[in-house]
Write a structure and sequence with these properties.
- The two termini are 40 Å apart.
- The protein is α/β, with parallel strands linked by helices.
- A hairpin with an 8-residue loop joins strand 3 (60-63) and strand 4 (72-79).
- The protein has 14 helices and 20 strands.
- The chain binds ligand BES, manganese (II) ion and zinc ion (ZN).
Length: 506
């Protein structure tokens, strides 16, 4: 989809439909809504008076006024002003885009939702409007023989205030770029395991690195053996597709030694559970077990738009978790990169083994901060449902940063405990740690296991098993892969970049 910024009045745009957001409170129309109302000789006023459209959140109504430069006006409800935030803007924009697509509309001109009577900051509202439109248009069509309905070809974002032109243009580009990065992550998650094994995930990483001008390295089995990544190797042994360890590196000149952010993504291209085989019900969904890796790759694909003045390293341990004659067995002991011995009590608790090696590798980079994203436990979904990912950290400043990014991106995080007392359950009689203990408190047990490998580092773990896959269609996401974490990470890195710039200026 082509996304452009146009100046002036939405009612002057010759496109297939105009989109106008309406706040629900019956107050006088202002700004773009007023302009469209005038152009349509009071059509918006009429439908509001009749009570046919109140601006209830996500309500839509299509008007067909005559004698204008468009055939249709799509009204979308923004809900009450007091509840309006950037995420509601995103959802409303997505809803309007759905309506447009269902009508076969190819070109759309939209006002920036929430920036007028909504009172939101225009640049942020512009970014959210574009994100919602692009995210709402996503379809995974790679395996369909019949093409889905035609997508929107062009979106025009209308800004009437010329003095804000540059900022709005940048915000619109960021919104389109970030949403496309999330769609790239969705494609990776939705791709079946047959077509996305560790080597092919690495091929995607190389391509993304080329596009974003990053350094990339992919370790094969011999190199992982030399390094001592016993955990990744053990989990990968059951598959005919050998494991890989992917390292992406954004290293701006002159800042190399100041600050290093490490982002880790779990990359299990398919999780059968291994010898501790999963039940057959719903196993097809386990192609999504590289959702953390997809988030990291999506983030890197859009990193040039953030251009952080610090080093950002992405680490992706990637395997296919399979049973087989060579596969890891319960009772086996693996030695991780930092020398810890782990007794494997359940081969289905493979994600934490991969992250153990990745965290140990991260330590060698002397990072300022480390964040991992992983579809780690079924238990996090029991705790939170599908509307938030679990946030595990003992670093309050980091928790605040990530929660701020979560609020801005609409990719919600919710804190869960990481207390040491839980670690007692994870002690092994034979080695140092067990990889799996009881079912109760499963998301925290996994996080406490990781904490051992993150010792001494500023670190947060995001368990995205609850959010990387959506079981239901929502305005901005279809059933399937969500790309969760891409926009969250980009937002977080932008906030860090902005605070570095502010610190240097003062
Ligand atoms: N990839 C799964 C997590 C998962 C499980 C996501 C079910 C969605 C639904 C992970 O590798 C896993 O299998 N975790 C186990 C851990 C257990 C064996 C301690 C789980 O959550 O059941
Ligand atoms: Mn598993
Ligand atoms: Zn898994």
């Amino acid at each position: 989809m082509q996304v452009q910024v146009k100046h002036g009045n939405v009612a002057a745009r010759p496109v297939a439909a105009w989109v106008v957001g309406i706040v629900e409170d019956g107050g006088a129309l202002r700004g773009a809504a007023l302009a469209v109302d005038r152009a349509t000789r009071g059509a918006i006023t009429s439908v509001r008076r009749a009570g046919d459209f109140t601006g209830r959140f996500l309500e839509t109504l299509v008007l067909y006024p005559r004698g204008l430069r468009t055939r249709r006006v799509i009204l979308v409800g923004l809900g009450p002003r007091a509840e309006l935030d950037l995420h509601r803007v995103r959802l409303a924009a997505a809803q309007a885009a759905h309506k447009a697509r269902a009508l076969g509309v190819a070109t759309l001109a939209t006002v920036i939702h929430g920036a007028g009577r909504g009172g939101l900051e225009p640049e942020r509202a512009a970014q959210a409007t574009v994100e919602g439109t692009v995210l709402g248009q996503y379809r995974f069509g790679a395996y369909r023989t019949r093409a889905p309905e035609a997508p929107l070809r062009r979106l025009e974002v209308i800004e009437h205030d010329a003095s804000r032109a540059r900022q709005v243009r940048e915000a619109v580009a960021r919104g389109a770029g970030w949403a496309e990065a999330a769609c790239l992550a969705r494609d990776l998650v939705n791709t079946p395991g047959q077509d996305l094994d560790p080597e092919r995930l690495a091929a995607h990483a190389r391509e993304i690195a080329r596009g974003a001008r990053l350094k990339v390295e992919v370790f094969g089995v011999p190199q992982m053996e030399r390094l001592g990544m016993g955990a990744v190797l053990a989990v990968g042994r059951g598959s005919v597709h050998p494991p890989r360890f992917i390292v992406l590196d954004h290293r701006p000149a002159g800042h190399a030694r100041e600050e290093t952010v490490v982002v880790i993504g779990k990359g299990v291209t398919f999780d059968t559970g291994g010898i501790s085989l999963k039940p057959k019900e719903g196993m097809q969904r386990m192609k999504y077990d590289m959702g953390g890796a997809a988030a990291v790759l999506g983030m890197f694909s859009a990193l040039p738009s953030v251009a952080p003045p610090f080093r950002v390293v992405g680490l992706i341990p990637t395997v296919e978790n399979m049973p087989g004659g060579r596969a890891l067995k319960p009772g086996d002991i693996v030695r991780t990169l930092d020398g810890t011995t782990v007794e494997v009590t359940n081969t289905d608790a493979e994600g934490r083994l991969l992250l153990a090696d990745a965290l140990a590798y991260a330590r060698r980079l002397s990072p300022t901060v480390v964040v991992d994203l992983a579809t780690l436990t079924g238990a996090v979904t029991i705790a939170l449902g599908h509307l938030a990912a679990g946030l595990f950290t003992e670093d309050e400043a980091l928790a605040r940063e990530l929660s701020g990014a979560a609020a801005a991106s609409g990719e919600r995080l919710w804190p869960l405990p990481l207390w040491n007392e839980y670690a007692a359950e994870m002690r092994s009689d034979t080695g140092d740690l067990l990889n799996s203990a009881g079912r109760e408190g499963g998301a925290t047990l996994a996080a406490v296991f990781l904490k051992h490998f993150a010792r001494g580092m500023r670190w947060a773990h995001l368990d995205i098993a609850s959010t990387a896959w959506s079981p239901a269609d929502r305005p901005h996401e279809r059933r399937g892969g969500t790309g969760f974490g891409v926009r969250l990470l980009l937002e977080w890195l932008s906030l860090r970049a902005a605070s570095r710039a502010a610190a240097r200026a003062s």
